[in-house]
C-alpha cells in the first residue's frame, strides 16, 4: 500500500492551512429595530426591509 | 458539453423543471407572493415576468402563449384581467425578491418573490385567511398596540421615513395580523 514517506514539517502544514481561514460574515444594523442583520436581507427580528414591513413578526409572539 | 449555458436545472429533467416553473408562476400570480429558495426565485423571475409581458399584450394569441406555459385557466385569467393591467406603465421589473436568510433543515437560502404591484393581492389573501380564522382577532390586537408603543422609541430615523411608514404600513398590517393567527 502507498504510504507517506516522510512526516510533513510544521511549515508545510501551515502552508496547507493558509487557505483555510474563515471569513467573518457581513453584518449591518437594522434601521428599524437596531438589531444586527445581514445586509440586503429582511431583518429577522422585526421583519422589515428598506423601511417596509415585509413579514409576520408580531413582537408579542 | 454545456459550457457557458446560463440555465439552471435544479437536478430536474426538462419536463419536471418546466412543470415546476409553470406551477410556481401560477402560484405567484394567484397569491402575489411566494416563498422559495433564492436560486429558484431568480430563475422564476425570468419566466414570471415573461408571462406578465404577455399579459400586457392582452391579445388572444398572447393569451394562448401564456396558456401554453402556465396551463391554468384560473391563473392566466387573473394574470390578464387583474395583474398585467397594473403594469401598464412599467417596463420590466415586475417582481421583487426579498432575501430571508436560511432554512433550518438544509440551510438553503430562502427568499420571497412577489409581484411589485401585488401588495394588494397579498393583503387580500391575508384577509381571506383572517376570515377563515375568526378567533385570531383578540390575539392580533395586542401586538398592534405594542407596535404603537415601541414606535416613538425608534424616532431616531429621519422624519421622511417616519412619515412615510404609517401610510404604507396599513395594508400590510392586516397581513401581519392575519398571519399571527396561523
Strand content of chain B: 5-15%
Portion in helices of chain A: 10-25%
What share of the residues of chain B lie within helices?
Answer: 55-70%
State the low-pLDDT regions of chain A, or none: none
The Cα radius of gyration of chain B reads: 19 Å
Number of helices in the DSSP assignment of chain A:
1
Question: What brief labels describe this structure?
Answer:
heterodimer, A: 61 residues, alpha+beta, two-stranded antiparallel sheet, 1 helix, 4 strands, 13% helix, 13% strand, rod-shaped, B: 182 residues, mainly alpha, three-stranded antiparallel beta sheet, 3 strands, 11% strand, globular
Describe the structure.
The complex is a heterodimer of chains A (61) and B (182). Chain A is of the alpha+beta class. In chain A, 13% of the residues lie in helices and 13% in strands. In chain A, the strands form 2 sheets. A two-stranded antiparallel ribbon of chain A has the order 1-2. In chain A, a hairpin with a 2-residue loop joins strand 3 (48-49) and strand 4 (52-53). The longest helix of chain A has 8 residues, at 10-17. The longest helix of chain B has 23 residues, at 159-181. A 3-stranded antiparallel beta sheet of chain B has the order 1-3-2. Chain B has helices spanning 14-31, 38-57, 60-70, 73-83, 119-132, 137-150, 159-181; strands spanning 33-37, 95-102, 109-115. Chain B has 182 residues and is mostly helical. Chain A binds chain B through residues 31-34, 38, 40-42, 44, 47, 49, 51-61, and chain B through 98-101, 112, 140, 142-143, 146-147, 150, 154, 157, 161, 164-165, 168-169, 172-173, 176-177, 179-180.
Give the secondary structure arrangement, pairings included.
The complex is a heterodimer of chains A (about 60) and B (about 180).
Chain A: H1 10-17, E1 28-29, E2 36-37, E3 48-49, E4 52-53
Antiparallel strand pairs in A: 1-2, 3-4
Chain B: H1 14-31, E1 33-37, H2 38-57, H3 60-70, H4 73-83, E2 95-102, E3 109-115, H5 119-132, H6 137-150, H7 159-181
Antiparallel strand pairs in B: 1-3, 2-3
Helix pairs in contact in B: 1-2, 1-4, 2-3, 2-4, 3-4, 5-7, 6-7
Amino acid at each position: 500500500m502507498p504510504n507517506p514517506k516522510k512526516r510533513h514539517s510544521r511549515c508545510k502544514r501551515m502552508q496547507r492551512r493558509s487557505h483555510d481561514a474563515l471569513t467573518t460574515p457581513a453584518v449591518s444594523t437594522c434601521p428599524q429595530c437596531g438589531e444586527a442583520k445581514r445586509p440586503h436581507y429582511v431583518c429577522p427580528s422585526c421583519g422589515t426591509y428598506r423601511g417596509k414591513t415585509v413579514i409576520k413578526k408580531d413582537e408579542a409572539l | 458539453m454545456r459550457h457557458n449555458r446560463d440555465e439552471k436545472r435544479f437536478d430536474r429533467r426538462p419536463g419536471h423543471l418546466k412543470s415546476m416553473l409553470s406551477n410556481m408562476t401560477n402560484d405567484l400570480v394567484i397569491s402575489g407572493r411566494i416563498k422559495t429558495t433564492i436560486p429558484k426565485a431568480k430563475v422564476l423571475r425570468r419566466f414570471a415576468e415573461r408571462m406578465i409581458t404577455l399579459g400586457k399584450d392582452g391579445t388572444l394569441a398572447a393569451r394562448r402563449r401564456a396558456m401554453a406555459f402556465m396551463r391554468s385557466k384560473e391563473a392566466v385569467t387573473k394574470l390578464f384581467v387583474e395583474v398585467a393591467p397594473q403594469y401598464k406603465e412599467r417596463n420590466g421589473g415586475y417582481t421583487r425578491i426579498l432575501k430571508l436568510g436560511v432554512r433550518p433543515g438544509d440551510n438553503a437560502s430562502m427568499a420571497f418573490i412577489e409581484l411589485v404591484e401585488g401588495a394588494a393581492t397579498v393583503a387580500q389573501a391575508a384577509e381571506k385567511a383572517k376570515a377563515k380564522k375568526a378567533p385570531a382577532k383578540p390575539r392580533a390586537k395586542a401586538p398592534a398596540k405594542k407596535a404603537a408603543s415601541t414606535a416613538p422609541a425608534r424616532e431616531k430615523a429621519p422624519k421622511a421615513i417616519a412619515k412615510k411608514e404609517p401610510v404604507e404600513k396599513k395594508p400590510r398590517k392586516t397581513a401581519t395580523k392575519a398571519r399571527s393567527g396561523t
